[in-house]
Amino acid sequence: MKLCRRKFLRAAGVTLALPWLDALSPGRxxxxxxxxxxxxxxxxxxxxxxxxxxxxxxxxxxxxxSPYLEVLKDFRDEFTVLSGLSHxxxxxxxxxxxxxxxxxxxxxxxxxxxxxxxxxxxAAERVGLETRFSSLTLGDEGFGLSxxxxxxxxxxxxxxxxxxxxxxxxxxxxxxxxQTRRLRDGQSILDAVGDQAKKMQSGLGAxxxxxxxxxxxSVRDLxxxxxxxxxxxxxxxxxxxxxxxxxxxxxxxxVGRTRLLFDLAHLALQTDSTRLITIFLLGTSQVPPIPGVSxxxxxxxxxxxxPKKIEQLKKVELEAVKVLHDLLAKLxxxxxxxxxxxxxxxxxxxxxxxxxxxxxxxxxxILLAGGGFKHGQHLAFDPKNAPPLCNLYVxxxxxxxxxxxxxxxxxxxxxxxxxxx
Amino acid sequence: MRAPKVLLGCxxxxxxxxxSGQESGRQADPAFLENKIRPVxxxxxYGCHSGGAKExxxxxxxxxxxxxxxxxxxxGRWLAVLKRVKAGEMPPKSKPRPPEGEVRLLSDxxxxxxxxxxxxxxxxxxxxxxxxxxxxxxxxxxDLLGVDVDLKKLLPADSAANGFDNAxxxxxxxxFLMERYLEAADAALGVAIANGPRPKSVKKxxxxxxxxxxxxxxxxxxxxxxxxxxxxxxxxxxxxxxxQFYPSDRGNYRFxxxxxxxxxxxxxxxxxxxxxxxGYDTKSRLINYFDAPADKPTVVEFVEGxxxxxxxxxxxxxxxxxxxxxxVGADDWKGAGLAVQWVEVEGPLNDxxxxxxxxxxxxxxxxxxxxxxxxxxxxxxxxxxADAERILRDFARRAFRREVTDDDLKPFVxxxxxxxxxxxxxERAVRVGLLGVLVSPDFLFLREKPGKLDDFALxxxxxxxxxxxxxxxxxxxxxxxxxxxxxxxxxxxxxxxLKDPRAAAFTDNFVGQWLGLRxxxxxxxxxxxxxxxxxxxxxxxxxxxxxxFDEVLKNDLSLTNFVASDFSMLNGRLAKHYGxxxxxxxxxxxxxxxxxSHRGGVLTMAGVLKVTANGTSTSPVVRGAWxxxxxxxxxxxxxxxxxxxxxxxxxxxxxIREQLAKHRQIASCAACHAKIDPPGFxxxxxxxxxxxxxxxxxxxxxxxxxxxxxxMPYLKGRKVDPADVLADGQKFRNIxxxxxxxxxxxxRIALALAEKMLTYATGRAPEAxxxxxxxxxxxxxxxxxxxxxxxxxxxVQSKPFQNK
Lengths: 421, 804
Prior knowledge:
The complex is a heterodimer of chains A (421) and B (804). Chain A has 421 residues and is α/β, with parallel strands linked by helices. Chain A has helices at 2-11, 51-54, 67-70, 119-127, 160-168, 173-200, 206-233, 254-270, 297-301, 307-333, 389-399; strands spanning 39-44, 60-61, 79-83, 136-139, 276-280, 335-336, 339-340, 345-350, 366-369, 377-380.
């Protein structure tokens, strides 16, 4: 059976990329040793960030910090704040959360909408094979930010403790054995059902064939992933000092949950378990446990210019930015071959809503930290005549070492954002 | 574009669009678009609607319209062009009208291409290969294996299209989802197959007089009687927890609780029961609310599946806070309390061992201890291959919901064979085969061949429509005898299925999405503006429309009841909310509505009114659009980009009507808003939690408000003005009059509901080409007094339902 599967993979024209088993975690692959590894974390807070509190008033370098950016002042030379950007064909509304990293036009839950691949999965297809996990899709509730090539959602992991276990805990010998068996069984099962799907393909209409193709591709992709996981399972998992986190059951405590997710992201990057992470901070409508806040986040975001509500909203959003601050600090403190992890990790932080108060998706709040760019400026674009946000995404892909000149609705790279060599 | 092109050619001969075959052949030619059609667009549309325009108006780009009519979104945009041009709405009145010949050319061309595209689609079937969504998956695994496992939490939420999450086009598969399917199937098999001795079942009655929590509590909120413990506090932390019960096995447990209302002035005391997490379960969940009648110990009974080390807790509803009771002391407290005499628990419940789920897979094959692990039992076989094949054949038949051939079985038998050769034990090898069946496309997808559905596909469509799960043996037997498609048989089966408890899934999933009730938690009402909002009200307001739908369905009442009715399904909490006297407690019942209640129909149900509002304010636009979409079946188009939403002002300075007035003054806004806003204005008489209001509540300006002598945290704001005019000029003064106006066009209400139900029933929204079929359904239902049960029956009998 095993032989048959390999033969099948070869026949399907797939090169099975196995990890370099001689130079593993926490270090680096031999092949990549010449170039420093590049990483990316994309974070979206889908209820927006109150624009007057987020955007600085002046453009360029030496701009006075806005109230939210004041929290990040330690890092002002290590991030760029961008204003004016948006996805051209993404209309107003919360459904724009589906396309923050994809830029697929007209997202909505009506017929005819199909999402496209997200930035992280696009990268994972190209540079995801060097780590134990090609990417991590994290979130606190509901769904995540990542989508596959065919527009299927990548299910998000909501439990930091489970992800921690998957990344760092070895399990008892019999558990390891059972896991290895599951991986092997999984491969033979997928082999069998893949063949079955292939047989079904003849005589189908175009729309059926499309669906079955998607199934078949998924089966083949998973088969490869399980094969890689089986190889990785022979290597010990990286050891970390951190204890397994306890999940926070109170879904109103988005800040607490965000902290757990960010800590986990830091550990995953530090141990080179993955280099691509997305985090969607959906939150709930409940009142968050923050002093001075008596209304739910969603309702506060619809403040209707009520100063009392805006004041509370500021408290909620400041808490989120503080957690971001701590993530940047941890990345900065972590050294890898003399460089800080922050220099090698792009942290994109922003929202799919430009103004949550009226559901506008123009002039999105976007911040890019780390990753080895010449930072320290406010790149201000005219919202009426701004380049697509995807131009920034192309910069980021190129920074990951991917030779891409196009992504989503991009028209090029973003002018004014340069690499730091 | 492979097959569609070929199909397009032959489809033309079939359609009755008023253009000759030769003509249409030319029309399909891309050059026809560029040479004949495009110039018309350039001359009359591009000025405002293209990349060349300064700001494309209405976010519409005529220069992005393509000739690909198989693309539904593109087709929809062309249809919008056709509609606006034919209606004379575009070009706008201020611009010159294109010559009649050009209008005709355009409308013929669009009409012809749309018809052709739809005919092509009909030939390959309306509905694409449809994956089970996670509710259907969980239910199917439950019925297939005979186990209750919460698999939904292992699977990601499904995307929806056209309002329902069982839409074939929106249900995708990814490698990540496949991985979750492997995990979910493994978990389900782990529960279905017994690998140990029978867990010890215990039946024990617990009392609370000597309970540590009650005895040690520093808050004086519990009173110990001879035969009961009374709790007077509704503060969550004082909930009475059954700490004496601490199960070591997961499973179903039967709970019997004896409780009564204490000092409750003859009225029942309502209490809620929640799970208390432990072990793998980290989240507490509501089991249900119950009534404890005054002074008369009464037993409530329920069976609940619990993880190991979980228990339950009891909390009375709407009694005093713990502080108030503590100050006086429970022994002197004169207010109402909940007396709990005892709680009896029995379980885990297993009728037999190994359990039915195990025997359904392995029959009477014996179990033996595993060598080297005496605690683990596994099924053994003297003829592994023959037994495996027999097990797989039966399992696959049920899983695939049809007859299976040797060819169907081959890959799974081969899988087991390979594992046996690999020195797997019999049970483990069979388990790999079963896993294979559970992740195979035949299980995960509803396979339908183009044209009329065969009996098995029909059985599946029927059972996923009405039960949200796989067909049972009766349906499969009828299918195997090729009897199911007979109209009378189908009618009898629909009757049988609607009476089955599994039909609750139809109400839950269809109504929950049709009315948007699943969004109940999307916003949290402000506790300053709505201090009376509580969990019991929230849970009750979701239940009301579901029970109401069931009542209408059960008695085949007219579907116009959804617009206006003289009854509803209420409990004490909702009745209080609606200002209706004489209904107490948790239990729901059919209650006649007095005319001055302004209730009746789904529009004025609190649940609907809540999901169409946010936590602080209502918008006539949102509620009006909801009525247009859900009740009248004409969802308004999205607002154009760049038009900011109107900001409600809860400081009381201006009313929403004043703010929206400007819509009516701008011609391009008025086109849609004259239709959208009026029902929304009528619904302004209801606040964000569905309470009646004559005045808005305000946090800024206004008079003080007192309820039962207590000052409320909000103020009395400006007066509500619910009067308005429908787009056709009919005036109404309030919601009651609006309902009567809506009732004038019963066919429209029926058509809208028929479209929604057909969308849900088949996994695909009907399109323009299906319109005659839907109208035929409505005609038949009209002859049966618009009965809701008749609608379900006629949908099942219809062509769109019985064809792919």
